[in-house]
Write a structure and sequence with these properties.
Elements lengths: L1 H6 L7 E3 L2 E3 L6 E5 L6 E6 L3 H18 L4 H17 L1 H12 L3 H21 L6 E3 L6 E6 L4 H12 L16 E5 L7 H13 L2 E5 L5 H13 L7 E3 L4 H10 L3 E7 L2 H11 L5 E5 L4 E5 L5 H13 L9 E7 L3 H13 L19 H16 L3 E4 L14 E4 L6 H4 L6 E7 L2 H9 L6 E5 L3 H10 L4 E4 L18 E2 L4 H6 L5 E6 L2
Parallel strand pairs: 7-8, 7-10, 8-9, 10-11, 12-13, 12-17, 13-16, 15-16, 17-18
Antiparallel strand pairs: 1-2, 3-4, 5-6, 6-20, 11-19, 14-15
Helix pairs in contact: 2-9, 3-5, 3-7, 3-8, 4-5, 4-8, 5-7, 11-12
Bound molecules: adenosine-5'-diphosphate (ADP).
Length: 512
């Protein structure tokens, strides 16, 4: 697979700075491994502060012209990027499976999902509107600009004010500026496109720092961005020493925004670090998703939804169900049917036919799962299914169900980020809502019920940014994604995702 990727030109190992593929200045490299086999796939440039500072300078230079293009022009190039991503769906999918481990079909799905953000924001680029506000004084005019094509504004201002404004006075584009985008390994493509799509659409330029575990997909996507005519410097990629790269991004006054997906601990550090230069931050952090199955749920729908919400990407997503809360009347039936469904999940190398559960990302991830399980069992939980490393070795873990879990156990307090479904029993709706909200996280929640009134009552009572009702797969490019409480700040995807990359500029003008 690696050699096929090489011949397609998509296996890049250098960083991208100002449109040039670049080695680390000290020549250092880092290995990228296939988590299913442990093999080294490639050695990529291991970069730090200096390279990051150069990438920031390139992004700053590119910003001056990229932000001045018309939205229609930016849109065309983003659309081209989307077309190229889709034309290479198979190779990109292979790259994701190779470095991240998820099954090829799921990886190809991620390419489609990831690319959809580029398509959506290519379209959305043309729909950034401002406002005209009725003034409080008769001779004032109030305009709110987010982004306006300069010619139009010039005309408008001339019309209203009957004055001759010179061309060069029109600086109407209000993107945030240079953006630092720091992304995790669980969606090597989609976590990047979800940030870079709206950023570029608004006229921002970006320095991307992908996870050092999965840089290859990011580099391939950047290569396709260049091919699509996104100008040199508008998209830069640096990877290597995460704290050094992060510090350089935080320290630079030219970087006006940090957008991050990853752990809550790192997110908090970045938020604190952004204070020094008062940067905007968007954070998509950890979740602790409750999946609530009520007595009145359709059992088949609940099983299908919980399976999807829990086991996609082997449990390694921030919206994965972390706690399955089941009402006492349906608990035994649910546990039985769920065990049968989970037993059928085929574990293996993501390239093998029929596999739906790949390996975990690394040894640390397996250790975490083991620690959480030991903690639960020592406090009285029972293993219904799985509960140990898979016979395939490496970082494969058996899809697992644990019953009799309570709120004291690590499994229900923190994100396990693995293929473990803890079942918790509840009696009443109020109790379920209390248990669900009893956490600092607030990203995704799921409910399964056929009662319409309950659907609304519970959906509104849940302190979460996303609620799936009778549905386990809830993210799409057209709807806002993001958390409340310590799960993060800001929204990605949809029209709301654009606002994250735009400033609001008020112009109060004496006229008339
Ligand atoms: P995960 O547990 O998903 O790996 P992390 O928060 O550790 O979550 O990683 C998410 C991203 O944040 C990765 O790209 C990682 O390299 C980066 N990262 C980790 N530590 C820092 C840091 N101190 N500064 C900037 N980025 C960091």
């Amino acid at each position: 697979v690696a050699s096929r990727l090489q011949s397609s030109g998509l296996l890049r190992t250098q960083g991208l700075i100002g449109g040039k593929w670049t080695n680390a200045y000290d020549g250092k490299t880092l290995e990228v491994n296939n988590p299913a086999t442990g093999e080294i796939i490639a050695e990529v440039a291991c970069m730090g502060r200096k390279e990051t500072n150069d990438a920031i300078s390139s992004a700053f230079d590119a910003y001056k012209s990229w932000s001045k293009l018309t939205a229609a022009e930016r849109s065309k190039r983003l659309r081209k990027w989307y077309d190229l991503l889709m034309a290479h769906q198979e190779e990109l999918g292979q790259l994701i499976t190779l470095e991240q481990g998820k099954p090829l079909k799921e990886a190809m799905g991620e390419v489609g999902y990831g690319a959809s953000f580029i398509e959506f924001f290519a379209e959305e680029a043309k729909r950034v509107y401002g406002d005209i506000i009725p003034p409080t004084l008769p001779d004032r005019r109030l305009f709110v600009l987010k982004q306006v094509i300069w010619l139009l504004t010039l005309l408008l201002l001339n019309l209203i004010l009957s004055t001759n404004l010179p061309n060069q006075s029109c600086q109407n584009s209000m993107p945030v500026g240079v953006v630092g985008a720091i992304t995790p390994w669980n969606f090597p493509l989609a976590m990047i496109t979800r940030k870079v799509g709206p950023a570029l659409a608004c006229g921002c330029t970006v320095v991307i720092k992908p996870s050092e575990l999965t840089p290859l997909t990011a580099l391939a996507a950047a290569e396709l961005a260049l091919q699509a005519g996104i100008p040199p410097g508008a998209v830069n990629v640096v990877m290597g020493n995460a704290p050094d790269i992060g510090d350089a991004l935080l320290a630079s006054p030219q970087v006006r925004k940090i957008t991050f997906t990853g752990s809550t601990a790192v997110g908090k550090k970045l938020m604190a670090g952004a204070a020094g230069t008062v940067k905007r931050v968007s954070l998509e952090l950890g979740g602790n998703a409750p999946c609530i199955v009520f007595d009145d749920a359709d059992l088949d729908v609940a099983i299908k939804g919980t399976l999807a919400a829990k086991f996609r990407n082997s449990g390694q997503t921030c919206v994965c169900a972390n706690r399955v809360l089941v009402q006492e009347g349906i608990y035994d039936k649910f546990a039985d049917a769920f065990s049968k469904a989970v037993q059928n999940l085929k574990v293996g190398d993501g390239f093998s036919e029929g596999v739906v559960q790949g390996p975990l990302i690394n040894e640390a991830a397996v250790n975490k799962v083991e620690t959480f399980l030991q903690d639960a069992v020592s406090k009285g939980a029972k293993v219904l299914l799985g509960g140990k490393r898979h016979s395939l070795g490496m970082t494969f873990y058996e899809p697992t169900i644990i019953s009799d879990v309570n709120s004291e156990m690590l499994l229900s307090r923190e994100e396990v980020f693995g293929p473990v479904a803890p079942l918790l029993r509840f009696k009443t709706e109020e109790e379920a809502i209390h248990m669900a909200n009893d956490t600092n996280a607030g990203l995704a929640a799921y409910i399964f019920t056929n009662n319409v009134q309950r659907t609304w009552r519970v959906s509104e009572a849940l302190e979460y940014g996303l609620v799936g009702v009778n549905e386990g797969i809830i993210s799409t490019e057209v709807a806002p994604f993001g958390g409340i409480k310590q799960s993060g700040l800001g929204r990605e995807g949809s029209k709301y995702g654009m606002d994250e990359y735009l400033e609001v500029n008020q112009i109060c003008m004496l006229g008339g």
